[in-house]
Amino acid sequence: MALFNPTFSFKPCNLFSNGPQRCRYVQSVRNFTLRATVSVEAPSSSTTDTGGAPKLLLEVKDLSAVITESKQSILKGVNLTMFEGEVHVVMGKNGSGKSTFAKVLVGHPDYEITGGSIIYKGQDLLEMAPEERALAGLFMSFQSPVEIPGVSNIDFLNMAYNARRRKLGLPELGPIEFYGYVAPKLELVNMKIDFLNRNVNEGFSGGEKKRNEILQLAVLGADLSILDEIDSGLDVDALRDVAKAVNGLQTPKNSVLMITHYLRLLEFIKPTYIHIMENGRIVKTGDISIAEILEREGYKSISGT
Amino acid sequence: MSISTLNSYLPHVRLPSRRRTTTTTSNRVLATLSDPHVLRLAETLEDSISAASPLPLPYLQKLRDTSSQTLLSTPWPSRKDEPFRFTDTSFIKNADIQPVPFSSTQSLSSLPVSEDTLLPNLTVVDGYVVDSLSQLSEFPDGVFVGLLSNLNSESIMKRVSEYVSDFQGDLFWSLNGVGAPDVIVVYVPEGCKVEKPLCLRFVSVNGSDKDSKSLPISNPRILVLVEKGGEISIVEEYSGGDENDKSYWTNSVLEVVIGDGAKVRHSYIQTQSLNAAHVKWTSVRQDSKSAYELTEVSTGGKLSRHNVHVQQVGPDTSTELSTFHLSIGDQLQDLHSKLVLDHPRGFSRQIHKCIVAHSLGQAVFDGNVQVNRDAQQTDAGQLTRSLLLEPRATVNIKPNLQIIADDVKCSHGAAISDLEQNQLFYFQARGIDIAAARRALIFSFAAEVIERFPEKSVQKKAEGLITKLLIPKLLSR
């Protein structure tokens, strides 16, 4: 069950239907119902120790993948385990396979799995179609989102949101109801309302595209969000906005897998683990100190070979 | 044209008709070089016209004379003629073509089409204006919308008469010139900006049954003359009755003359019966600094052909052509466009899109842009995209640029494809199933043209039309 699900995150009426365990991190119901942005400003301490053992969310074993067209080998045995509420960061040189890993997780047709397994919430992810993965709470923000002329942002969001509502057995929202739901979310990514009427990513600046990805995340919610270089091409203000929004969406139950080149983003979003990827494998795992060494001395210093 | 070439058309024709044609044409010498089939048709049209209006205006008389003169040496086009290489007109050729009589159109108290427009409109049934169904009011002083034969102003008549076309179209253009019972004139005087769009509604009511050989023809003809600095928005609609399976042939001609700095926005929606023939000419003359915008959605007709000819007659013109064709059944949608630039600094943007959603469906696009020697600093762009949604669906595309001037910026592009893989994946990655994603992308494909209709109501109408036609197709897949 998606914990960060907008239908009950921001609507007081739905709060009562939730179990008591959720009240633990919603520090004050009153506070929560004031405004959507309140939750953004709340600190996102990585409180994984909320009693009981955290649940296993994702288990990747010996995953290998090739480019569908050229059969060129990209992933050569990736292992990664994530628990609920954790923030993992994957770093590595260009071409080390970071983005491929992210795309493989969401079922991108450009890549073909040649070995290994991915278990997500106890299910075999490789057996699921991309849209089923999305509906199961997997969300990837694209590094360079495609433009879709002729489809407005709000229509796209409405379609995606209704797909999720159907999956949850909830009635779909019409355009007007949906507008009421989505409009407050724009504050989260610091965008004006006319953003909704523009065509999906068409003519967007680099920063607008990234903000739009986060807006989609905010609207749809995710148990595991995979953020592929969400910080690239952003100026300082935009980076702060995006990081703040990601933090705001973070709860003790949902998890983030971030791909980045820079330490800068990690100042805003605190990672549980940092993985270094090299030549299609994760060669080293550690805490924030790895990133600091990396920043100082480059990839040579922590090369696995 | 040699006699031997002409002879290749003759086997289609029965001999008695040959004898008959020679007796009625004024020029017996030429007649021997003529296509008897064409002459017979021209004669039928002439007969029906002279019965309706015995004393034509000089404008009409001149139009008919030039047209019949041209017809004497115009054969029926075959697939060997380049402009008809991909367009088979035998559907019309093999039919028994009968002009619709005037009397059968005036008794209608209401249109057999449900949609009503709030725009000022002129309603034309089977080629004849029906006043009782038209709603014309609130046009500024000096604007005239109506039949040439009802035109009282001598000054306007004088202006109009200067534009009896010397343009050389094709067979269908000339047949219209012979068969048009009158001319609908839209006149906008100097500096006059007409705020409300004018809707010209053409409805085909008389139709024969699908399997009948008979094909009722109507020949509407429109002249739009916008003087210096004037502006008008015209919505041209062609539809059939509610039963969408009748056979008829609409052979329409629209001429647009745009003066210095004047502007014409032209919306065109064609939704005629899937058993009908729809042949349309749009011929535009653009004077300096004038602007012409065409937005078209065509979905109807078994054989539908739109010929757009834009001739620049002064510098600094702006021309925007946005067209969308949909072949949902066993039908052919054809756009032949030609833009001739003879003066400096012309600007043009053309986008043509088509979807073929039937295995027997066909689309044709021939987009010609001529940038002649004096047309320096022209900025011309053309783009065409086609979506083939069924196996064996056919599209024939011929974008062509002819550039003689040396200081120009021209571009063209053509793509025939299925939907973009990475766009589909973007939908899927957000939890939207592939069928819904395909639907959204197909509609968005059309939306790029539809959103250019200047009138919101027309946009909505076109959207509704496309949805109604495509949804059953897409759901059945």
Automatic annotation (TrEMBL), chain A:
SUPFAM superfamilies per record: P-loop containing nucleoside triphosphate hydrolases
MF GO annotations: ATP binding
ABC transporter domain location: 58-304
Keywords for the protein's UniProt record, in alphabetical order: ATP-binding, Nucleotide-binding
Taxonomy, superkingdom: Eukaryota
PANTHER family reported in the protein's UniProt record: ABC TRANSPORTER I FAMILY MEMBER 6, CHLOROPLASTIC
NCBIfam families to which the protein is assigned, alphabetical: sufC (TIGR01978)
The protein's name in its UniProt record: ABC transporter domain-containing protein
From TrEMBL, chain B:
Name recorded for this polypeptide: Protein ABCI7, chloroplastic
PANTHER family: PROTEIN ABCI7, CHLOROPLASTIC
Annotated ranges, domain SUF system FeS cluster assembly SufBD core: 216-445
InterPro entries the UniProt entry points to: Fe-S_cluster_assembly_SufBD, SUF_FeS_clus_asmbl_SufBD_core, SUF_FeS_clus_asmbl_SufBD_sf, SUF_FeS_clus_asmbl_SufD, SufBD_N
Native source species: Penstemon smallii
Top-rank lineage group of the source organism: Eukaryota
Domain SUF system FeS cluster assembly SufBD N-terminal, first and last residues per copy: 58-198
Pfam family, one: SufBD_N
